[in-house]
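Explain the record.
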Amino acid sequence: MADIRLNNSMVEIRELNTGDYEELALFNANFPGDRRTKEDWLKRFQHWWEDNPAYDDKWIRGFLLIIDGKIVGWVGSFPTLFKAGENIVKAFNGTSWRVLEPFRKHSIDLWTKNREVSKHFISFNTTPTEDVIKMITRLGYVKYPWGGNRESYYLLKPYKYIQEILPQTWHRLLPLMGTFIILYQKAKIRLVKSNLTLKLLDINADEINELWNRNKNRIEFTNVRDSLAIQWYAENKLLLSVFLGEKLTAIAILDLRKNLKYDSFELTFVDCWVDYEISIMSVLSAIVRFCIKYAKENDVSRLRFPHFSPEYSNTLKKIGLLTKKYDHPGYIRIPDYLKKSFTNESSYFTLLQGDYGV
């Protein structure tokens, strides 16, 4: 705890505890630009910590900036279980560094307290502002390896997106242009046929644990995907299973949410874990086909498939989806004791890192 008196105001930075949840949820709900309610934030705290299989009471959840007894800022974190070589370790996922504008001269002091905790862990920051990127890159954070900063996508309601980039005088052409884009996508897409069957899955602990254990040694650095972790990651999301006969050969997590800018629902490919015996082309083709059908039945305007690795990037390009720049770069810092064994080729990162979508 740090107490400082400035201009007759008592400035305190202290660790967040359970008794702070109500006041902190209200602070977040009222923070400029925030769209979540107090109840939304309380559910988020419950998910990050009490419901999190990686969390225990030794984890420091974050720090509060308090001036004259009121919360005016905070920074948080939550743990996730991560495979690092032969060991399972806890990764540090930073979140919600926010301070009310009149008190931002204390922002760095607040962030430094969190930094003292994070430096001992594999650490992720997946929603940084430009100013935060400048700061964390000086502290050894680098973009985590994906298959480039691209994503593939499929439009079911193109007019919602193209009207944003066209002058008003061109809007009368939207129906024609939308029809052209839909026909172009259908002509371009190439989905291979297979004997795989897909369905939305309830958690089956034995099948998921078997899939994880059968394939975990192929990759040195990646998120743990046993049944407890998958159940936690998939809360409020869609969990998709891929079967070959009776055998679970892949699982995927999909996130359905509203894009407020375009006033449309989008389905995003969050994660995929595939059996080494099955080709990525077969699995991704089956998933894309499923997502297109699901989108048509559930009023979804766009499907999004980030390129998690070079293999995913090459496969999605072969499938023939449209591509664009990906807007949410993620950053990772590897502690010194793991740097020698970490390589891009030995790692696999998706949208399970950091606080994106959690």
